[in-house]
Specification:
Elements (H helix, E strand, L loop, with lengths): L6 E7 L6 H4 L9 E7 L14 H11 L5 E6 L8 H16 L4 E4 L4 E3 L2 H11 L10 E13 L3 E6 L7 E6 L13 E11 L6 H10 L10 H13 L21 E6 L3 H7 L9 H7 L2 H22 L1
Length: 313
């Protein structure tokens, strides 16, 4: 174990823990410490008990942890007085507390596979080689490539042909998780990608996820809405995907189009997948990543909205 860890990676471990077999190998070499945090009663954030193969889980951790980097943290992450989103936020904050202040705090979910974690870590160290946690807070974001469904021939995924892909704050100098990994800190945009096996599950696995993940307390709170969305997902195949747009359950336009790529496995998909060119020039990305310009734009937008409000009164 590194005595002064800088790259601290936390995972919220749950019913889909076996996906760690694909996610941990992609980050292990470049992490200083890895925290696997799992509910001690094997309950989801929604409070439902799930099946969990303890023996295989611990055997997997033992087999992969050749350098002694992994800490298994078991606690109560499913309080009955909190909803699924609140339990999600609390789970993430407890991981951050366990890893202690300082360094880069990175949270990756079991179903997220970094395309090049080593390069991402190099960028973090260039931004700040050793955050103390007392600096002005900063997040570093990566782009998601959401996998929607595994078919006989390959994967249906979210395509962003003319827009900036969906982003997620992955690393932060000051953990303050208010809605999953989101907070009010300044978001620095990196050009790194994460393959997100979000919906590409079996029918039973996806139905369980839809009913138990953090979003179950928000946009998918109504069972009839969950069922309608789930039935639409079941109807997708490698032929009709092209007729579906705005597929995100919470913010429809976040997933503007669906694409298809051949591959018998996630690894094959990653080998076949071609990353689309970002609709941002280097200068535009510089402007987006400048904290002072972002602040000016923020107050300018407020001023414009106030003027528009007065005109419409």
């Amino acid at each position: 174990m590194v005595t002064n860890p800088i790259i601290k990676v936390g995972f919220c471990v749950s019913y889909d823990w076996e996906l760690l077999k694909k996610s941990i190998p992609r980050i292990y070499e470049h992490a200083d410490v890895i925290c696997l945090a799992i509910d001690r009663d094997r309950k989801s954030w929604a409070g439902n008990v799930y099946d969990f193969d303890n023996e295989n889980f611990y055997n997997f951790v033992s087999s992969i942890d050749r350098d002694g980097k992994i800490k298994i943290y078991e606690d109560c992450f499913s309080l009955p007085e909190l909803n699924a989103r609140q339990n999600c936020n609390r789970h993430r904050m407890l991981i951050a507390e366990k890893l202690r202040p300082g360094g880069w705090h990175i949270q990756i979910d079991s179903d997220e596979y970094f395309v090049d974690f080593g390069s991402f870590v190099k960028e973090l160290r260039k931004i700040n080689p050793n955050p103390t946690g007392k600096e002005k807070p900063l997040n570093v974001c990566a782009y998601w490539v959401p996998l929607i469904k595994k078919t006989k021939l390959g994967y249906i995924y979210v395509s962003f042909p003319d827009s900036i892909p969906e982003m997620v704050p992955i690393a932060t100098t000051f953990p303050d998780y208010k809605r999953a990994r989101h907070n009010d800190h300044f978001n620095l945009i990196s050009q790194h990608y994460i393959i997100h096996e979000t919906w590409a599950r079996s029918e039973n696995e996806l139905w369980f996820k839809i009913n138990n993940w953090g979003h179950a307390a928000e946009e998918l709170q109504e069972k009839q809405k969950r069922l309608a969305y789930y039935n639409m997902w079941k109807a997708l195949d490698e032929y009709n995907f092209q007729y579906v747009a705005n597929f995100h359950p919470a913010s429809a336009t976040t997933w503007p189009m669906l694409g298809f790529s051949p591959g018998e496995s996630v690894e094959a998909f990653m080998n076949n997948f071609v990353v689309s060119k970002l609709p941002l020039t280097g200068f535009q990305l510089f402007l987006r990543n400048n904290r002072n310009i972002a602040r000016i734009k923020f107050y300018w937008d407020i001023l414009v909205s106030k003027i528009a409000y007065k005109r419409n009164k």
